[in-house]
Fold this protein.
Amino acid sequence: MVENLRSQVVTQGVQRSPNRAMLRAVGFQDEDFTKPIVGIANGYSTITPCNMGINELAKRAEVGIKQAGAMPQMFGTITISDGISMGTEGMKYSLVSREVIADSIETACNGQSMDGVLAIGGCDKNMPGAMIAIARMNVPAIFVYGGTIKPGNYGGCDLTVVSAFEAVGEYSAGKIDEEKLFAVERNACPGPGSCGGMFTANTMSSAFEAMGMSLPYSSTMAAEDAEKADSAEKSAVVLVEAIRKQLLPRQIITRKSIENAISVIMAVGGSTNAVLHFLAIARATGVELSLDDFETIRARVPVLCDLKPSGRYVATDLHKAGGIPQVMKMLLAHDLLHGDCMTITGQTIAEVLVDIPTEPSTDQDVIRPWHNPMYAQGHLAILKGNLASEGAVAKITGVKQPKITGPARVFESEEECLQAILAGKIQAGDIIIVRYEGPKGGPGMREMLAPTSAIIGAGLGDSVGLITDGRFSGGTYGLVVGHVAPEAAVGGAIALVEEGDTITIDAPARLLQLHVEDAELAQRRANWKPHKPRYTNGVLGKYAKLVSSSSLGAVTDLDLFDT
């Protein structure tokens, strides 16, 4: 057995007896001091339904660790509910929380010399935050997803949290009455679990399964189902075996396994946020990855799954249809997956998938057969042009007009934009600009679910474009372009746009263009002055000072000693 780092400290003589005494106080017996110490990074909270069921999973993992011959040490990590904070100043803390989670897990595990970590999370930033920490530390680790929520239902239709946001837009446009608005709100979220469509949480859990850092099928299980708790306990046993074998995250998280994850993200129609998060995870692992790599993979991977937000089904439907292993096997059969990548189980991807059929069952239509995909190419496109020289991210599938040219409607914040939409001041053909919402400018790069849902609810989803240096919820769809870099706060071209300027969003050509002469842009740039920072102290102040461009993953530890 690999002797754990903590035991090396506490068995070096009488002078270390205080360490042993404190460990005895938390349950260690004589025979436990030579066992691996395994951290359980527990994301439990009642802040959000995404995380409210996690404590039971943590307890089951604790049982599994003990039965496998190791010693668990449980500690808490934070969460911010994106859905609850959406559209408020609190949403600025969402992306910030990814860094806080990563830092806290690294601090607890390294501070206590833990031999491995089992991280459990539910809401969107729990997953990338945990994986960034895991990649930094490179001690044996596994991620356990808290599980997806079951769909709500009203009038015979499945609902998700996005249904509630869209209902606000429908109500403001006079399409539904107050009774239906509140009926949707009351029924959208029926219990524990993360947002049910292929939004950010389910996207990242699916990607981690594809990358080999979570157990097969675990990413689409419902939070309330018994199999989710069983999977948490099994994950603990697998992790202890990985500690004994010293199977390390950087043996699993490689360039090839990240490509596998991105391929699955494309195939399931995942969230734009995955681009930002995998750039950050790759950096923490030491893997070179750029925005252009997403575009390369997009061009060769079809969208195979009919999932919300733009499709019909939710993650529990995908689970019943064969889950992520079925999607992966289809990609593997067509040479779009690296089958030799290692997983946390000690098996390769090809070995994990050996018994999965190459085509999905014909008694379902959640996963489409290879010859009849939803779309021939992936849905997350990287757009560039004079409005986004470093790049921007757009969802381009399910849009009736993938190219639009129109007048700019410029807003300096999400709130200003939402007010204009709800007041009926946005017309078909307009291109909305929401700026100073980037990593530094927001700070925190808020998601624009409220305005984009209001656009959909008003019936303008196919005729209005929206461009922002902020982010989008995984529940967003329509002709929307986010992560524009450089952002407005650092003088990016988006800061130079004026009301009425002509802009083109051309998804097929991957172009984002401001139709203003170079000389005029140069004059505007000469006259541009940075906005005063919105926060100058506290966590948002620190974040604004340290955070990198979204094109680099919006990380906070980029070249710290060069600044």
